[in-house]
Amino acid sequence: MNFTLPETDLWEYLSRTEKTVVMYGMGNGADKILAVCERRGIAVANFFASDGFVRGHAFHGKTVLSYSAVKEKYRAENLIVLLSFASSRPEVLEQIRRVAGECELYAPDVPVCGEDLFDLPFALAHQKELEAAEALLCDEESRHIFRNTVLYRLTGRISYLFDAESDRDEVYRRLLRADRFEVVADIGAYNGDTIRELIPYAEHLRTVYAMEPDRHSYRKLTEYAESVHTPQIAAVRAAAWSHACTLSFSAEGNRNSGVHAGKKCEELPALPPDSLFTSGLPDYIKYDVEGAEWEALTGTMETIRKRHPALLVSLYHRSEDLFSLPLRLAEAAPGYRFYLRRYPYIPAWDLNLICL
User: Fold this and answer.
1) Does residue 289 contact residue 258 with C-beta atoms inside 8 Å?
2) Structure confidence by residue, pLDDT tens digits, 230-280
3) Contact criterion met (CB below 8 Å) for 233 and 224
């Protein structure tokens, strides 16, 4: 890699600090971070929420405090704050900046899927693959985002994220040239949000194949599809996979739904997206399938080799995605040019590989 890895990572630093560690936020993200802290012997003193959002509830046996109460109890200069929720909302990101201006704040990186933590031993073990993936990238902005993503994941410092943000107009207009698209496939369509986002840039768009396995998200997707006259949105409730089969699906009713284990599981059909493209092969395929990106890519490989569509592939669900997906795709479909773009988000979500 064309940069130096830090000598230690966030988890090692937290295990040695004498400051008081508190967590900002609750929920699934907090559970994952707390589990790592427990394994690493890192004591978490308390949990807090933004002022005005405290309702006297408890989390992991502790009464959740307000931000003001945490500062008063422990003093800001003695605190380390671990951000434990995700957001892309500008007002929330600004609030996080304010907290970071008053306290020592980190946003620990824990994988959405899989067990591998992107810590320093992981980075060193995969250094050659990281170097090879970085070498595939075609412009300096991509390499800058790649470096900052690695450094953020190792240190938890949100400054690396704020310094590596991309412009959606540039992605849709200059890179993807969405004005040429007539047929697209949205693999992991959620409630239709990325279709809504694409339509203003794709004036010639006539057909969208939309796959979404989650029941609640699919209902919202179909409601949206029925409200749109052009393009025609063909919604399918199925998981994207390398071959036709039945999978145990975790239905969370949100972006975290996927084929990984969860509290609410159901049997659901899985299909290779290639089998759906009956009205024309897509000019563009987007993949955001909660850790099943390689299976979905494999399930569209026939289309990729025949049509060479533009691709946008999420690279943030598994720790290894940052290097494994570009390397596997470069081998399976040679000839593509690779770019990396990342929209504003904490943690390092909305990180996308764009293949042209």
Assistant:
1) yes
2) 999 999 999 999 999 999 887 665 445 455 444 557 899 999 999 999 989
3) yes
List b or e across 190-226, with b for residues whose CB sees 16 or more CB atoms inside 10 angstroms.
bbbebbeebbebbeebebbbbbbbbeebbebbbebbe
**C-alpha to C-alpha distance for 147 and 67, rounded to whole angstroms:** 32
- List pLDDT tens digits, range 117-158: 999 999 999 999 999 999 999 999 999 999 999 999 999 999
Q: Using the structure block, give the residue that is written with the tokens 């690279």.
A: 315
**Residue carrying structure tokens 């830090």:** 6
The pTM assigned to this predicted structure is 0.93
Q: Which two tokens mark 192?
A: 């239709």
**Which amino acid belongs to residue 181?**
F
Name the pairing type of β-strands 351-355 and 338-342.
antiparallel
Among 70, 71, 18, which Cα is nearest to 47's? 70
CA 258, 262, 264, 270 torsion-angle sign:
positive
Reported as a single tens digit per residue, the pLDDT across 302-328 is 999 999 999 999 999 999 999 999 999
